[in-house]
């Protein structure tokens, strides 16, 4: 194998690792459509529903009964997230909730779901805080 081929393989491996870290799923995470997410909320009344968007986004409209823990503050607020409860996460488009799930997964959380297309596709009721 020549050096150019080796460099190309290393670059491809690096890109693959980057993409997996950025977009891969977390262990114990269920990716859910809006319909499935609504069903999970109905079936698991004790689930912890977390909006991982920033506070101003949360105030503009959030799913009823959601608490706001921005992904940027997640590690500081782990005491608010019991490991023995189902955790349902959402954000604007699904990227930040997936990131939050990866963080929680690395910390041992295993019973999680996230609204894969985010609140943009929700279609259910919203509450606002002004």
TrEMBL record:
CDD domains: RHOD. Residues 43-128 form the Rhodanese domain. It holds the Pfam family Rhodanese. InterPro entries: GlpE_sulfurtransferase, Rhodanese-like_dom, Rhodanese-like_dom_sf. It comes from Paenibacillus paeoniae. PROSITE patterns: RHODANESE_3 (PS50206). SMART domains: RHOD. SUPFAM superfamilies: Rhodanese/Cell cycle control phosphatase. This is Rhodanese-like domain-containing protein.
